[in-house]
Write a structure and sequence with these properties.
Number of helices of chain B: 11
Radius of gyration of chain A: 19 Å
Shape of chain A: elongated
Order of helices and strands of chain A: HHHHHHHHH
Structural class of chain B: alpha/beta
Strand order of the largest sheet of chain B: 1-6-2-3-4-5
Order of helices and strands of chain B: HHHHHHEHEHEHEHEHE
Radius of gyration of chain B: 27 Å
Number of strands of chain A: 0
Oligomer: heterodimer
Number of helices of chain A: 9
Largest interface: A-B, 47 and 45 residues
Number of strands of chain B: 6
Largest sheet of chain B: 6 strands, mixed
Shape of chain B: elongated
Helix content of chain A: over 70%
Amino acid sequence: MGLLKSLCLQRELKQRIADNHKRLYRTAYAWCHDTHLASDLVQETMAKALKRIGQLRDAEKLDSWLFGILVNCWRDHFRTQKETLDIDGLELTDSQTPETQYHTQDIVKNVRRSIERLAEGQRQVVTLVDIEGFSYAEVAEILAIPVGTVMSRLSRARQTLADYLLSYKTAGEASSKPALRRVK
Amino acid sequence: MTRSTTQYSDEMLNAYLDNELHSDERKNILHDLRTDKELQDRLCQLEQVRNMVSIAYHEVPDPAMPDDNTRRGLTRKTAVAAGAVFAIVGALAGWMGHSYLKQDTSLVSLANQVQVNQPSSTQAWKVLLHVTSDEPHRLETLLNETEKILSEYDNRQQKVAIQVLANGKGLNLLRSDKSKYGKRIADLQKKYDNLIFMACAKAMSRVQQKTGNSVELLPATQIAPNALGEVLDKQRQGWTYIKI
């Protein structure tokens, strides 16, 4: 009976891992903005998760456990990429001029471009909270950092994004009132 | 009014927005929000940013073709049943589609079908064939297709450039001590100067670490620092990518 129950649980967990594909991909894409890399990272994450499913102690924490694996895959990729980074082949992250930004008026593009410009730690925190709706405690567990660090990174990330995005929006609306006020 | 604005840190306001505060802390902020215009503005800004980030990733581009190694692990049964499996990505159009195809399907026509921006008669069609396995039917197919593309384009007097990239077990195709195809590859290289065979340096160093012996490659084989980087670079440059 116990064995049957355990098999059913494993089956359910595997299904839940598969159901998380879209969320994992969206987050991976938000981190790297590269469909190929995001796809590879998610496949690797899911393969590892299926392989290590026995290590998951609390089924309730499946989501944060899965995203934790994604973080590790991302770190591994980053580490191996460092050795072979070809700086001649690198494109500037933000090749848009302010003029073209004003003209495009495309919030989505501008938000993504602004996210790209964030420090990696801030980018991970803000995407996990704002896009996937994880709690601070879950993000702390996923990234293996204290909750206080989650809060400070999130705060800096949102402030930086406000600097990038709301100044652009205000300029577009030609408002005379300054839109930003940094609170230290 | 001013006092209440400064007494709340950005971290605290973010926690309020994200529903991470205790009820009495929430109550205090709610109370001050009624009268404090600056506090309202700060919260409004943070809320706007939060919504913008959330909206920006509501729709994301479809996933690109996943890596064959992991896919094989996940769908081994399907792959075995289907025989040889090919994954095709039309690089110029980003993600274009993916198909499991039988071995006898011509890659030339399929690759042409998924390519949106067809090269003009003066431009060369650039194809990157990537192999990560040393299964004989894959290597045979790779060489057959390479020869087919080269000869068809030659007959039509159209330009084509082919690069064969090998990593993982696919490296065995280009190892002089392992490959059964040394002569065939040498003949192809002699006949066509628009064909390059390239081995992944990382895969070579992994083999060297494992066996303790240096990896000897077939003559005229070039070396790429790393296969993934090579694939991404070529895709950025508009090459059609076909993984075999």
